[in-house]
Amino acid sequence: MELLQLQYFRTVARLEHMTRAAEELRIAQPALSKTIARLEEDLGVPLFDRHSRQIRLNAFGQAFLRKVETALSALDEGRREVADLAGAEKGIIRIATSSLGRISSAVGAFRALHPDVHFRVIQIAPASTEMAELLENGEADLCFSATPIARPGIGETAVLEAEVFLAVPKGHRWEGRSSIDLSEAENESFIEYREGHPFREINEAFCRQAGIERNVVCEVEEPSALESLVLAGLGVAFMPSCSGDARSPLWLVRIERPVCRRTFTVAWWEKRYMSKAAQAFRSFLNDYFDEYQRGGSQS
User: Fold this and answer.
1) What residues make up the domain containing 284?
2) Whole-model pTM?
3) What distance in Å separates the CA atoms of residue 278 and residue 80, rounded to the nearest whole number?
């Protein structure tokens, strides 16, 4: 059994399509089919159910894939550990995040200090469970999120407490006010994230604390859509900011009661080797956001 066979099998298992897998691997489709056939011959069982031109991973294939993922992840871990010890490379940091806008400036600041370090960034939907899976499978070194993962084996530490403001459009009766009590927003028209979105759940908790009912007039997926609809005058919205960004075209009103904050965390798989570069970036995030919250610039 060869390493290349395992790598090819993993790709075919993920795509369940021989031609697309061959294209992704940049090899001829007949050569890929022969490689998979040899692997099945070595194992003594078929790994795929074949119906005409369609293939589906069967029970044997699913069981084998779990072991292949573990083996390839361990080999990749070993490669990175040896490279660290030998000083053969400055490091690649693989980070998954559901809050790209919040961490992008930190990535830029770290690269300015360590230009030989490279990042691979995976953007994940906030409500997705994919971040935990990426950590467990070894496909990400770190995850950065505004909602905790809270799974056994995953370490997490808070790196940023972001105050949540109420963003209002120009001409709104609260424009110019420095602060409000959230109870004043009873029956106010709100732009919100869709049902089930973790930020929606956080915002609903703020409203329950304030004892108010809201009129949600628009539901969105992305922060940029939230801001655009507030700018268009359709309603107000909860919007996090560490200090109230003076460059924002929106008026951000501080909420005095209840305390409204989002906690951003960095997470990692505790039992997996972490490269020196990833360890350095994890430590850097604490210092970077500490300075930011003390009034430093993210530029």
Assistant:
1) 82-159+264-293
2) 0.63
3) 11
